[in-house]
Amino acid sequence: MHKSGFIAIVGRPNVGKSTLLNALIGQKIAITSTKPQTTRHRISGILSSEKYQMIFVDTPGMHKGKDLLNIQIDRLAVSSLRDVDLVMFVVDREMGKAEEIVIRYFKNLKIPVFLVINKIDQLINKQAIDQLIMSYLNEYPFAAYLPISALERTHLDKVLETIEQYLPEGPKYFPEDMKSDQSEAMIMSELVREKILYYTEQEVPHAVAVIIESIKENIEHNTVDVSALIMVERSSQKQILIGRGGEKMKRIGSEARQEINRLLDTKIHLTLWVKVKKDWRNRPRDLRSFGYGE
Ligand SMILES: Nc1nc2c(ncn2[C@@H]2O[C@H](COP(=O)(O)OP(=O)(O)OP(=O)(O)O)[C@@H](O)[C@H]2O)c(=O)[nH]1
Ligand SMILES: [Mg+2]
To answer: What is the 92 CA–ligand 1 centroid distance (Å)?
Structure first.
């Protein structure tokens, strides 16, 4: 019997959902960062074996944001609960107000929800883990609870085993060698954004969107020429991004290029442009043209 199904990974921002996706697939599919609200799209990672195919759907962290981008992103995360066979609710601390908001969305679900306690490498002792788990089991009838560390890849075999038990019988929806649904352009723009998240602070990471403008094969130099546009909301943010003497932008470009080369196994030449677009996070048309929303 072959089993298959879709598994949504949901939770508050920054709990380690994308890190978990990457660890389960064994490849970097989604970018991660220490800053909340890193993921903005729904990203699928596919794990195939002889016995099963699991399609993991990484989602943006659920939270109540103020701008239109955040509202759309939150809606996207919530809508991911539809049309899946299973939900993994990822947490990294005791039950609180923000967690309660997420759990509220489970109330009408008829599919199993697993409680995944992540970052146990940071919890001091077994007692702390038990206490954390108890704070959730009082709130919702979770089908299973799974303490893990996505970063250190501990107990992931137990996660896969438990998912397999609950998966329905079904076909392979995707070719066996396909690991994600991300296009090359999406991978490139996300990797550029990841480096920006790493090198900027406060409001800048949230004010940035990256759009791949063109991908052209350069036969003469045996490279692929990629041009990317970085959108920010204010000229002060543009200055921060570029840095003194263009130093920061150079570093962002160089690190993004190296990782794109490695992940896509192509030699690219990357050109970055920074442009100011006032208040794009609140403009429906900008959001659409930057690839956000359903
Ligand atoms: N110590 C520790 N850190 C972890 C673990 N898993 C993830 N992290 C860290 O937590 C931070 C957030 O990880 P992400 O995977 O980007 O979190 P996310 O839930 O996808 O965040 P959003 O996309 O913003 O919702 C990163 O700095 C990760 O390295 C873990 O098991 N242990
Ligand atoms: Mg994420």
So the answer is: 9
Q: At 43, list the tokens.
A: 């990203």
Residue showing tokens 């709130």: 139
- Is 270 among the domain residues? yes
Q: Are residues 51 and 148 in the same domain?
A: yes
- The domain boundary, picked from 133, 166, 199, lies at 166
Residue 179 lies in a domain: no
Could you list the residue range(s) of the whole structural domain that residue 160 is in? Answer: 3-166
**Ligand 1 pocket, 19 CB below 6 A?**
yes
Classify residue 110 as exposed, middle or buried by CB count within 10 Å of its CB (0-12, 13-18, 19+): exposed
How many angstroms separate the alpha carbon of residue 213 from the centre of ligand 1? 29
pLDDT recorded at residue 125: 86
Which one-letter amino acid corresponds to residue 13?
A: P
Segments in the chain below pLDDT 70: 294
The pTM for the full model equals 0.97
Tell me the ligand closest to 37's alpha carbon.
1
Tell me the per-residue pLDDT of 108-142, one tens digit each, with 9 for 90 and over. 899 999 999 999 999 878 898 999 999 999 999 99
Ligand nearest to the CA of 151: 1
